[in-house]
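Most newcomers find our protein records easier to grasp once they have seen one. Each record describes a single protein and holds just a pair of labelled lines. A learned vocabulary of local backbone shapes supplies the integers on the structure line. Nothing more is needed to start thinking about how sequence determines fold. The record below serves as our worked example for the rest of this section.
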Amino acid sequence: MGEDSARGDVELLLRVARLYYEEHRTQAEIAREIGYSRPSVSRLLTRARNRGIVRISISHPLEHILSVEKRLREALPLKTVRVTEVDGSDIIGAIGRAGSQLLVDSISNGQVIAVGNGRTVQATAQQVPQIPRVDCTIVQLLGSIPGGVPAWGRDAPTICTRIASQLGAKVSRMPVPLIVDDPTLLRPLMREEKVATTLALAARADVALVGVAGVEAKGAGNILAEYLTADVREAIREGGAVGHILDHHYDAAGRPVPTPLTPRTLALPLEELRQIPLVIGVAGGEDKVEAIVGAVRGGILSALATDYQTALSILDSLHTPSQE
């Protein structure tokens, strides 16, 4: 084939490829325009791909997020995962957006949704859209933070009220403290009708929304900071605790780790929480990785909303040999 003939061949392939892929013309239309049969146009398009004139690339900015979500579901016993990019430095806000989307996608009319406390759960509640869910009930999983409701509304009753308002749902609250001063007060409080009824309803929830915390009290206003006395820290260390959910500590296998706070904490036990069909954990940050993995492996969490970097850190930790 001479140079002119080769050039003409490439020009024809380019013309046919542009008409088909850029102008979205049908093969029949192209055939009429260039004076070839439709099967000939099909063969020309195949030649254009084989010669590298046409390169088909399927991509989307969301693709790497979907890939990480899939890897997390394959690596851990998670029913569903929502990973989000962080725009700027607001990790909690980004996770809250992902958490609210996952929550709304997971609930149906007539269900009971049990809710915990904390900054990330509060961020999730703040971003729940106004989408009615008929005959739903939002129920409190644990008592209220001592000293009243913090300015940013991270206490369970406030969060429950916000979510109920957005979904048009009923709300069931407990007017009791999260941590009592005297352990002998806990059982009588839990037997009170309002508390017992609320905790029983929470145990029968269809979906739960909880935060995940590491063993160290970090950040302004951390709920457990004032309670991490020397004896509590010693119990955490001896028990190998990696995190706490509903202010109950647990180890890397998700087993409860008793501390001096345990008999003073008014919250649904982890054993009952793990019986709820879908428990969504909303959490992120390098210091939460071990806590998240332990909660999922132990069956405390069955769904996760987190940020992209935390998701990568979780995957990396699963492929890092244990130091034990």
Q: What stands out?
A: The chain has a mean pLDDT of 89. The longest strand covers residues 80-84.
